[in-house]
Sequence to fold (672 residues):
Amino acid sequence: MGMVDLETGKETCLGVDELIEAAREMRAWDVLSIHCAGSGHPGGTLSIMDVCAALYLRVLRHTPKDPHWEGRDRVFFSAGHKAPALYVSLAKAGYVPLEETMTLRRFGAALEGHPHWLKLGGVEFSSGSLGQGLGFAIGHAVAGMRDPDADWRVYCITGDGEHDEGSIWEAVMSAPHYGVDNLVNIIDKNGLQIDGWTKDVMNIDPLPEKYRAFNWHVIEIDGHDMQQILNAFEEAETVKGKPTAIIAHTIKGKGVSFMENVAGWHGVATTEREELDQALADIGAPGFTKERVDELLGIGEEFGEKATAEIKASVPKFKRDYWWNSGDTMQVDMDATRNGFGRAMENAGEDPRVVPIHADISGSIRITQFEEEHPEREPRFISCGIAEQNMMSVAGGLSRAGLIPVTGTYGVFATGRCWDQIRTTICYGELNVKIAVAHGGISVGADGATHQSLEEISLMSILPNMHVSVPCDAVESQRASEYSILELEGPACVRFAREATPVVTTFDTPFVHGTANVIRYRGEQSRFVDAFEQKLSTDYESEGEDLSIVACGPMVPEAMRAAWILKEDEGLETRVLNVHTIKPLDRKALVAAAADTGVIVTAEEHQVGGFGNIIAGAIAEEKPYDAPLAMGMIGVQDKFGQSGEPWELMQAFGLTAEHIAEKALELLKQKK
Fold:
């Protein structure tokens, strides 16, 4: 076993001591790459590194010179957040230079925040949505068993927290049924996930007994003992008629003193150089001198600077720089919209019926402010780990008993993974369940496509009985959340971002669920928010504007900035509609904007048309056909996201005020 030279047929096979030293070096590259990226998952990547060293440097039959060689063994990283460990393993094996790991999570790099098999040779599976890799591996193993010429083996890497997902257990059940004895599931059992100890978040023990009950061959090992790791892989090759589960007991953050067994290092990079230096010293890998570390960090920084420059060069140009806080006037405060949701949860907690349901990123989406700020409140929260489908069903049961469950997680998982439960259990039954569609759009940045939700406006808006809010800033997020939780009866979801965005409303700004706000630019002020007048659409009379921009969520501030650009550069008057409630929709305001201005630009941080087609449909259905209408849409152009800084992605995907203004000018020319 080992790396194969296809020309000579020779195999490279490292000894135990060599593998131990390789794992040490790989840990150093891992923490260094994550530090350079500014984000990532050091805890789980360090815990799995000994297994990775054994796999990629001795156990697997593979060849870096031909990543798609048919005779290779396959490894599927179901635990996609451990991507840095995968990249370092591939680099150490020779698929890419080790220095390329310094481009981790940078815009344009092949090393995405979660692995994408179409971008990097040696990556077998695009992952990041937990719980899907084992079923994928089973399918591949079945194909291998049915091919008489195939003698390759299939390995899958999963996490213990990942076993919260019901799809894992469907796969665990099916593998023995298919008799895939060419399959090995390696479970990184480090005992921790984002919200704490796995036994407290969602206890999966006794794990060995459960696997045996499903008719798996089970091997338990110390996941940091290289000889035990190798022995386990050798034993797995002898098993016939059933799959093998290797349960590797590991330490999260292994090798770095301040990371070991600390849940907080699940998804946080070292930010200070002193932390990085301490981590490297703890690991003790030779060769990482201060000069060498400076050189390596410079590679990542240079790559990022080049990408940023190319992105900025692609943004439409106007007479001056209108970017956020770039001048002496029009200054704006920034706050994460998730903070608004957190404040809403704190206030909603006064109602004893409100029950938060945690989904393993509870602190990140601020749902825990319900109890953190008020320890005197009786414990009401329910932890579901990352079992999002079960979370929605449990929420339905709580609602049927008269409670108000508030669920929340990444938008892509809150709406996509459990869409059937939301549709059938919640909406069909008109149950009073609330869904925090958190970290919406591209705001998760470097996490990449698997975690960037760009489809949930469509998914939620199509459901009967569902109320859909997409507030524009932290203040409006608080107001929309409080209304949806405490005043609105029935299914409701609120979509908000993770990163800080401009605050463009105040608590004095009119807000009525189901009624759009009309925003008009009145002239430059020292504070951005003071340069605009905002009214309910029901209180607004046309001022004969040249065009309208219809926006939702974080695109509302961009629409406002576009109105500023168009007035100062072109002398154009713009009506901005803040459609913070997509369902029910303020159809009268939309028809009025179309009739009054004749030019509509929709703007969404979403797959283009998810919001825009809802707007277009309402106008087409109700607009009197007595005047022409020029209409265009700004949004993500039918593509998945990718890793990068959030503001880089806004520019790269054409979602800024400059892009909106450019589109508006094009439509005005068409109209004339």
